[in-house]
Design goal:
Elements lengths: L17 E2 L10 H12 L11 H21 L6 E4 L2 H12 L8 E5 L8 H10 L2 E5 L12 H5 L3 E7 L11 H10 L3 E5 L11 H4 L3 E5 L10 E5 L15 E4 L4 E3 L13 H14 L4 H18 L6 E2 L8 E5 L5 H10 L2 E2 L1 E3 L4 H6 L5 E5 L6 H12 L1 H5 L1
Parallel strand pairs: 1-13, 3-4, 3-5, 5-6, 6-7
Antiparallel strand pairs: 2-8, 7-8, 9-10, 11-12, 12-15, 14-15
Helix pairs in contact: 1-8, 2-8, 9-12
């Protein structure tokens, strides 16, 4: 299935660049760029800050985007917190567990995690003395869940797991994992950065306590994201400042009751404008259409790669990511050759060093597709990949 959407993206339209790094950050469609331009051209204001037209417009956009997010992932507006992105969202949750965890507790993560969903928990364990347990990754790029129940029963306070691996492309069985965690009264956080634009996300069906994602992974701008929180009343803000209080005295402050208490300071209204437009853009297609389009591209690439040069290390059913390693050549050298052919890919450890270590590697090459990629893109990428041996030998 070819969705024929490349022309909707100014950075790619009428250019020869083959962009295969969407897992890192997506290109923006014209409608998102234009929405930001239109907003700025017609007057920028701070929500909550004025009784004039610019501010009232910003206020309406602010609330409307929160509603769009809630509809997109099936929750209530009152459960959505605007953040800078997945990393800040996870740090907000980790901040709130600092006073709830002792040396008697454990935290459960997996070897698949991006550093953003690992480092905050490592630091929390350093601060509290809690144990950090890891669910292991097997050589099939899947989590070994045979120890899951045992680890949840280890006085576990929280389980944090990626919905989709950023190196392996593995879609984890998060609904089943969360259901088991709830039996042991374990809080659950899902890192949805790699899933939000590729898989249907229904936080009610998943049953998690927290779900984090970033706008730039779903055709929106960077610097904006959201955290779903099942019970936001149980959290305290990571940051304090203007716009989150009812009353302040010389020595005390009283926070507002709603989720805006987590959004201190001037809102990233430009990012919110772009995120809202990106949600409208994605709403034009059924998620199954996007999934089928990307699966077809990944399958095409898998069939064209020279198996004498490359080993595929990503999951066999990965829908938008294909990660490769080559015994003769370093991934950075391969990426450089592809860049010279105007093919953009990612090389290195992908901020997931424990994941690669578990796979017996230090680095790899990652190609990731998006809504704008075409079968011709894949043909060009495969041709460049298969020319590497001739160039480097």
């Amino acid at each position: 299935m070819d969705l024929q959407t490349r022309h909707l993206f100014p950075a790619l339209n009428n250019q020869s660049t083959v962009y295969l790094d969407s897992a890192s950050s997506c290109q923006l469609p014209a409608c998102v760029i234009e929405s930001i331009n239109d907003y700025l051209r017609t007057g920028h204001g701070n929500p909550h800050r004025g009784m004039y037209a610019f501010s009232e417009k910003a206020e309406a956009i602010y609330h409307n985007c929160r509603s769009k997010i809630a509809q997109f992932i099936n929750c209530d507006d009152t459960q959505i917190i605007f953040t800078q992105g997945t990393t800040e969202s996870i740090n907000l949750v980790a901040h709130n567990f600092r006073d709830k965890i002792t040396a008697a507790h454990s935290i459960l993560v997996t070897q698949m995690e991006h550093h953003a969903n690992l480092l905050p928990w490592q630091r929390l364990c350093e601060q509290t003395g809690a144990r950090l347990n890891l669910l292991r990754l097997n050589r099939n790029a899947e989590l070994d869940t045979s120890e899951l129940e045992h680890l949840l029963n280890d006085n576990c306070a929280l389980m944090a797991v990626a919905h989709c691996g950023n190196v392996t492309g593995t879609v984890n069985p998060v609904s089943q994992m969360v259901a088991l965690a709830r039996q042991y009264k374990v809080a659950t956080l899902i890192d949805g950065a790699q899933a939000i634009a590729h898989h249907g996300v229904d936080v009610e069906a998943i049953g998690c306590d927290f779900y984090a994602f970033s706008g730039h992974k779903m055709y929106g701008p960077s610097g904006i994201g959201a955290l779903y929180c099942r019970y936001p009343g149980n959290l305290s803000p990571l940051k304090l400042g203007g716009g989150i209080v009812n009353r302040v005295t010389d020595h005390q402050y009283h926070l507002v009751d709603d989720v805006t208490r987590f959004e201190a300071g001037s809102a990233n209204i430009i990012g919110i404008v772009g995120l809202g437009a990106a949600l409208d853009f994605l709403a034009q297609w059924q998620i199954d259409e996007l999934h089928a389009h990307e699966m077809a591209l990944v399958s095409q690439l898998q069939s064209l790669i020279d198996s004498d040069i490359y080993q595929i290390i990503s999951h066999r059913d990965a829908s938008s990511i294909i990660s490769l390693t080559s015994k003769p050549f370093h991934s950075h050298d391969i990426a450089t050759i592809l860049a010279e052919a105007q093919i953009a890919v990612r090389a290195g450890h992908h901020c997931a060093q424990p994941c690669l270590t578990a796979l017996g590697l230090k680095q790899c090459l990652r190609l990731s597709v998006g809504i704008y990629n075409t079968p011709d893109d894949i043909e060009q990428a495969a041709c460049a990949l298969n020319s590497v041996f001739r160039i480097l030998s």
